[in-house]
Amino acid sequence: MEKHMNELEKLKSLLSHWQEHNDEHAETYRDWSKKTANLGNKELSDVLESLYKRTKELSELFEEARKKIA
To answer: How far is the C-alpha of 66 from the C-alpha of 46, rounded, in Å?
Structure first.
């Protein structure tokens, strides 16, 4: 049972790390979305904004997974 709990705690820590890393990527996508919009490439900007939004949705799933660990 002890090993089982240690593995879950490790996973909880990993999920936090992955979520943080994911959020960093999301912000990079948003930054580039703004840059490409300023460069006049709205289509690329829109795709990057979509990447930002979907990446933030993944962050919600990381959080949901963390909450499932007792």
So the answer is: 31
User: Please, what is the end-to-end C-alpha distance for the chain in angstroms?
Assistant: 13
H/E run at residue 21: helix 2-38
Mean pLDDT of the chain: 95
CA dist 58 to 37, 41, 48, 70, Å?
Answer: 24, 26, 15, 21
State the maximum Cα–Cα separation within the chain, in Å, rounded to a whole number: 58
| pTM (2 d.p.) | 0.84
Q: Is the alpha carbon torsion for 52, 47, 29, 51 positive or negative?
A: positive
